[in-house]
Every structure is written in structure tokens, then in C-alpha cells.
UniProtKB/TrEMBL annotation:
InterPro entries: NTF2_SigF (IPR057514). Pfam families: NTF2_SigF. Residues 1-169 form the SigF-like NTF2-like domain. The keyword Repeat does not apply. It comes from Agaricus bisporus var. burnettii (strain JB137-S8 / ATCC MYA-4627 / FGSC 10392) (White button mushroom). Residues 176-196 are annotated as: Disordered. The keyword Membrane applies. It comes from the Eukaryota. The lineage of its organism: Eukaryota, Fungi, Dikarya, Basidiomycota, Agaricomycotina. This is SigF-like NTF2-like domain-containing protein. Keywords: Membrane, Transmembrane, Transmembrane helix. Coiled coil: none annotated.
């Protein structure tokens, strides 16, 4: 890529939603380094000589499992100084053997690029999902249960904190929070204010 900010959307679509295995292979070989690293919630490939072949296999399996994947890149952030691209993506992935509709799943993808000459190549890809979005990929009917579980554990965590405050652990003082500066001195950081 000469200009990742402009080209990355098309590159991602060529890799993930290619209309043929030959197009997908060509895109991966054109835009990923031979030693590309890959991290995903259910698989990983360490950067190594010829690791791109393994990443290609993952993407081929991805297309076999979901032949009609749809993907939309909603936002691109190109950090040129650190050779990093952040992508806010929504994808509709449906396992071919499940008789259900694909559900949208949101993910954040971080690409670390390597510049070789005048071109940038993907050296590392990391995919991050919220739990409910990840389940939306695999078993969309479970998504409401995962969301409910997350809401319940959030509520329970808050209750545990209140109980801990009652026992004297990590209890905020009665000071006016507007008077505290987030960048202020750390004098009270290691006092007994937050401890029993």
C-alpha cells in the first residue's frame, strides 16, 4: 500500500470477502509480509518465516465456514508515526451449516505495518471482540444470553464493591471529586485513604 489510510478498506475487503480463493491468495501475498503475525480470540500465528502461508490457511477456512461473509469498515485510524492502523469493523459471518441468519458482530482490528521501500505491508494483525459480538459470529441466538450474563456480572461487581466499602476496602473519601485533580500530586495515593 502506498497510502494505508486510503487503501486499507479495499485491502481488508479483498482479504476477507474475496469472490474467489485465487483473489484472496493474491491479496494476502500482496499486502501481508511473509512473516506476518496473527492474533484472534480462537487462533494465533506467531511471526515466523513463511507464517503467511498459515494465515492464508486461516482465511481460507474462514471463507469455507462462511462463504457469504459481509464486512463493513466503519472507521479507519492511521497512526503513521507508529505504523499502526486501527479499524472499526462490522461483519456478518454465518457458519454454513447453521439454519440461522447472520448477525452483525463488531470488532476492532489493529494492524501493525512495515514499510519496505515506498510501500506498507501488514506485519501483524490483531482482532478484538466483545464477548457478545464474538458469540454473534458463532451462535447468534446465544447473544442475548451473553449480554444478560454481562449485565448481571456488572451489577454483581457493583454490589461487591459496595459491600467492600462497607468493610472499609477501597472506599472513596467524602471529599468533593471536583477539587481533586486527575493530574495532581500523588501524596494521598499510598496513604490509608483507600485501604482498611
Amino acid at each position: 500500500m502506498e497510502d494505508p489510510a486510503k487503501e486499507i478498506r479495499g485491502v481488508v475487503l479483498q482479504i476477507t470477502t474475496a469472490s474467489s480463493p485465487d483473489q484472496q491468495k493474491k491479496a494476502i501475498e500482496a499486502y501481508m509480509t511473509p512473516d506476518v503475525g496473527f492474533r484472534h480470540p480462537i487462533c494465533a500465528v506467531e511471526s515466523a518465516p513463511e507464517s503467511r502461508k498459515t494465515v492464508l490457511g486461516i482465511y481460507q477456512w474462514y471463507r469455507i465456514l462462511s462463504p457469504y461473509t459481509v464486512l463493513r469498515v466503519d472507521n479507519v485510524v492511521w497512526d503513521k508515526e507508529n505504523n499502526t492502523v486501527l479499524l472499526d469493523i462490522v461483519q456478518w459471518f454465518k457458519l454454513f451449516f447453521l439454519p440461522i441468519q447472520a448477525a452483525p458482530a463488531r470488532l476492532l482490528t489493529r494492524l501493525t505495518l512495515r514499510k519496505e521501500g515506498d510501500l506498507y505491508f501488514i506485519a501483524t494483525q490483531e482482532d478484538f471482540y466483545h464477548p457478545e459480538d464474538f458469540f454473534a459470529l458463532l451462535l447468534p441466538p446465544l447473544t442475548p444470553l451473553i449480554q444478560l450474563f454481562l449485565l448481571i456480572t456488572g451489577f454483581i461487581s457493583s454490589l461487591y464493591a459496595k459491600f467492600s466499602h462497607f468493610l472499609g476496602y477501597w472506599r472513596p473519601s467524602d471529599m468533593d471529586s471536583e477539587k481533586l485533580s486527575p493530574d495532581g500530586p500523588e501524596d494521598d495515593l499510598y496513604t490509608n485513604t483507600g485501604r482498611r
